[in-house]
Amino acid sequence: MSGSVPLAMDVAQINAFLEREFPQIGIGRDFIVEEVGPLSARLRLVYDVRHLRPGGTMSGPSMFALADVGIWVAILAQVGPLPLIVTTNLNINFLRLPEPTDLVAEMKVFKLGKRLAVGEALLYSAGGSREPVAHATGTYSIPPR
Amino acid sequence: MSGSVPLAMDVAQINAFLEREFPQIGIGRDFIVEEVGPLSARLRLVYDVRHLRPGGTMSGPSMFALADVGIWVAILAQVGPLPLIVTTNLNINFLRLPEPTDLVAEMKVFKLGKRLAVGEALLYSAGGSREPVAHATGTYSIPPR
Amino acid sequence: MSGSVPLAMDVAQINAFLEREFPQIGIGRDFIVEEVGPLSARLRLVYDVRHLRPGGTMSGPSMFALADVGIWVAILAQVGPLPLIVTTNLNINFLRLPEPTDLVAEMKVFKLGKRLAVGEALLYSAGGSREPVAHATGTYSIPPR
Amino acid sequence: MSGSVPLAMDVAQINAFLEREFPQIGIGRDFIVEEVGPLSARLRLVYDVRHLRPGGTMSGPSMFALADVGIWVAILAQVGPLPLIVTTNLNINFLRLPEPTDLVAEMKVFKLGKRLAVGEALLYSAGGSREPVAHATGTYSIPPR
Question: Closest partner residue to D91 among A91, A116, A141, by Cβ?
Fold first, then answer.
């Protein structure tokens, strides 16, 4: 996308990998990988009534899933199609009630080590203000290669 | 259940409140409130293929949802049917891959303040070893009464 | 510093407030408030052998303290000299071993509510690479006004 | 005190290891290892005016340090004197303002993997009520052996 370090996978390669290996996640249906870049990614959670919670806002588990998938995709884009990367810790702060519309998550990767990767996700309501609705940090275990 | 401080709601009252006010959560279908007590609760997530992730283990968002609903129910049992308690922070550590079976969560409430309540959830595979598959702590904002 | 929303306190006012009300913190000695802005702040932890841990890197408690004081100062700059703002949650990821030199923390405030404020701190070794050594998010309880 | 799995180090061995390898921590002066057991430990932070924060309560960084050292000691007791175990994540909830007196921390280890260990610390004011003043969970990276 930019920068001098080549990405291990672009958006098309990530989509193909996820649809083939992880069909349960709903890439291309629930989640859209919009962009990947050096230590970054942007994903969209497509609005659906299944994602609503009481009061008509997007639910906590849906926001958790977007942040978790988002940071994981940002890591995959850097390291390539490793099948066994797993979340070991996720901390999420819910900041505002999100509108009943798509959610967009912008990810940064803080650390890409041999054994652990750490990143963050900032979640916004699509088309809304730039005030984030949630912030998450996640740690992922990378298998020996 | 025991102890000298009376609970604000027992299991039957919590189930009736949640089914009436929060039908989206799936209490009685996805989640079973098994027990509530002084500063404690136990919930079960009923196994369903919808809760699986790649590899056949229970998914991260399902474990997150169980911990989040579980701590919230433990707080409700103490304070009564307040409709506007919301999660402000949830931190979850994934410890082991859970079996493809029911998950049981045991909650404790550490603090029950006027404005904030804090609790934890320890998650186990039902019928399995006593080694926890995940641990979460959550903070909940309690509305002015 | 910029933007259309006036700050409640500038760097000089924050320094005066902290030195008068919280002399134990060591503002002006251990911690330097370098800049405050709209929903942001930058602080420095001055190197001292007291902040070292085994191996000669800056210690975890010192990094925790810098992140905690840093987010708190960023909030104070927005809301003014309220004496009773307290930390309710702090989550910190240690990313790399910091050099035995000053640490710089850059803070952003994600939410500034009536009862809770949430922000983040990214910590770097002064004069080093732009790779962060730690990232923290913190929640602060704001007293009724 | 112990079950069927032998501990790798008892209290005397841990104290000797920490005093020799990590004199900066202040084991035996600031921190007392009171007990270690299977997947557990109990430590004490000795009251000192250096640990106070404004208002006369024990400071956040001191509580962070007690939780961090406490979980680390609980892991050391299980795995033996490995020098390179480092904290990768620590999440702490501050629940009540602690009294200006010793703090006691009770630790449990949730997971003891080849690469990562995860545990919790519950902190109390010594001699006070059994209401915890803080709760922390921590993740530690274990070096290859």
Answer: A91
